[in-house]
Amino acid sequence: MKTLTTDVAIIGAGPVGLFQIFELGLQGLNTIVIDSLPEIGGQCSELYPDKPIYDIPALPNAKASDVVDNLWQQAAIFDPTFLLAERVEHIEKVSDDSFIVTTHKQTKIHCRAVIIAAGNGAFSPVKLKLPLIEKFEDKQLFYRISNVEHFRDKNVVVLGGGDSALDWSLTLQKTAKSVLLIHRSTNFKAAKNSVNKMYELCDQLKMQFLCGQVSNFQEKENNLTGLTITSKDGVNRRVALDELVVLFGMSPKLGPIDNWQLEMHQHQIKVDTQSFQTSVTGIYAVGDINYYPGKRKLILSGFHEAALAAFSIAETVLEKDRIPTLYTTTSPLVHQRMGVEHTLEEMLN
Fold it and tell me: Could you give the cofactor binding note from the entry (predicted)?
């Protein structure tokens, strides 16, 4: 069992959770960030890393992965601790400004405040429902791709019809020996440009598309060797493979959040918009996970919420009646916390 201590525990390492690190750092507060996914970025990293986001201020057209990278670069100066691939199971309130957060790996985080920035909850991949197929997971069956080189010169089958399946099919086509995309219909929930590009590559015999559903699999000497695909007309086809990538999407689940005794509104956590504190003093919620009248599930809204929550938390943790607004352009104290050095002449100009 591992025990850690920090000022604030942040549950969720998506865009809003990453920005929360920065806002708390400006207040001089240390953070530990816990996320059930194995990498930072939340939905932006898992579902649409190469898709453009158009409504981030000063970034008129940025890939989701670039937004995550920029947020990490901004937050990194405050040296947060990350506990990735760990799911928070329990929050014990010792007092209004003392909590013990416990993960499923029995890591215990002692902190002064907790911020839930968990998006729509903990994400888990929608899995292929075939008996015994799970024995190939992380060997030849993958629900996420972390290393494209693993698929080089391999015969790859990709299952799915959303943005993630199309994007990865187009990416793997450049390095794999062959790529076969399989979807249950010709109606894709993906960007039209990606679908058109896929059909174009099929016409050029650079990849293949097959309409149908997986009904069985073949194996030899404990290796996955092929799939049986059943079309709508009942015809069965066998396809050989070296690697199988299943991208049916991610399923958000509130999971343990339901057991934390927080006041809820239709699977979202109710908050006070002055502080973004929940019904439990010392626990806050920002981003898509929270609810208040007029709530909009936008990354931009989450950034605003993170800033206000940081001020409120600082008042409690630093035991001050009111935290002054310090501007990053001119405040020597903020510059000191950020490690920014300016000459007196630069400050005066």
Answer: Binds 1 FAD per subunit.
CATH of 3-124+251-338, one of 3.40.1180.10, 3.50.50.60, 3.40.50.620, 3.20.20.370: 3.50.50.60
Please state the domain extents for the chain.
Answer: 3-124+251-338, 127-248
- What is the pTM for the complete model shown? 0.77
Task: Judge whether 35 is annotated as a binding position.
Answer: yes
Check if the beta carbon of residue 252 is closer than 8 Å to that of residue 123. yes
Confirm whether residue 88 is marked as ligand binding: yes
Find the mean pLDDT for residues 19-48.
92
CATH fold match for the domains 3-124+251-338 and 127-248: yes
43 is in an annotated binding site: yes
Instruction: Determine if residue 106 is left, alpha or beta; phi over 0 gives left, psi from -120 to 50 gives alpha, anything else beta.
Output: left
What is the CATH superfamily name and number for domain 127-248? FAD/NAD(P)-binding domain (3.50.50.60)
Is residue 288 annotated as involved in ligand binding? Answer: yes
Q: pLDDT tens across 275-313, in order?
A: 999 999 999 999 999 999 999 999 999 999 999 999 999
Q: What is the pLDDT of residue 122?
A: 63
